[in-house]
Amino acid sequence: MVAAMAASAVTQSLLRPVRSSSSSSPHYSSSKSRHFSSLSSNLQFKNHDCNGSSSSLFLISNDRSRSPLSLHLHHRFKPSASLGSDLPHPIQPVEEAVKINRNDEVMKQWDGWTAKFAAAANIPFLLLQLPQIWLNAQNLMAGNNSALLAVNWLGSLTGLLANLSLLSYFAKKKETEAMIVQCLGIVTTYVMISQLAMAEAMPSLYFSLTSIVVGTGVISNFLNYFGILPPVIWGLWEDFITVGGLSVLPQVMWSTFVPYIPNSILPGAISFVLAMVAAIMVRTGKLSEKGVKFYGAISGWTATLLFMWMPVPQLWTNLLSPDNIKGLSPLTMLLAMAGNGLMIPRALFSRDFMWFLGSSWATLLYGWGNIVCMYLFNSISRESFLATTAGLLIWIGVAFWKDSKAYGHSSPLRSFKELLFGS
Question: Binning pLDDT at 50, 70 and 90, where does residue 103 land?
Answer without folding.
Answer: low
